[in-house]
Amino acid sequence: MEEKLKKIMAETFKLDENAINEETKMSKVESWDSLSHLQLIAALEEAFGMEIDMDDMLAMTGYKEILEILKK
């Protein structure tokens, strides 16, 4: 799950997968804006076969938070 998430985030935000870790947050990634956030949500829903609700979408502000939401 973690590797899949890193791959999706790397593709969405045009980052190196190895640069993505628990310190990766929306406020620190220049390419992470509202449009790319929606692209990330869509990619996660497709990759993990789930529907992400609005509260979780808003809480997904960093790698660590996204991972916690995906695990529940």
Offer a concise description of the structure.
Helices cover 58% and strands 0% of the residues. The chain is mainly alpha-helical and 72 residues long.
The low-confidence runs, each spanning 5 or more residues with pLDDT under 50, are none
Tally of individual domains: 1
Largest sheet: none
Net shape: globular
Characterization of this structure:
The protein has helices at 2-13, 34-48, 54-59, 63-71. It has a single domain, classed as Orthogonal Bundle (Non-ribosomal Peptide Synthetase Peptidyl Carrier Protein, Chain A), CATH 1.10.1200. With 72 residues, it is mainly α. 58% of the residues lie in helices and 0% in strands. Helix 1 (2-13) packs antiparallel against helix 2 (34-48). The model has no long low-confidence stretch (mean pLDDT 96).
Question: What is the topology?
Answer:
Layout (H helix, E strand, L loop, with lengths): L1 H12 L20 H15 L5 H6 L3 H9 L1
